[in-house]
Amino acid sequence: MAETLDSLLAESRDRLMAAGIEGAALDSRHLVSGLLGLSLAELMTRGRHPVSDADAQRIRAAIQRRAGREPVYRILGEREFYGLTLKLSGETLEPRPDTEILVDCLVPYARRIAARKGRCRIIDLGTGTGAICLALLASVLDARGLGTDISVDALATAGENAERNGLAERFETLRSSWFEAVDGRFDIVVSNPPYIRSKVVDKLEPEVRLHDPAAALDGGDDGLDAYRAIALHAGRHIEAGGVIGLEIGFDQKQAVTALFVSEGFCLLESAKDLGGNDRVLVFEQDVERSTDP
Question: Given Cys at both, which of 17, 42, 134, 193 links 38, Cβ 3.0 to 4.6 Å?
Answer without folding.
Answer: 42
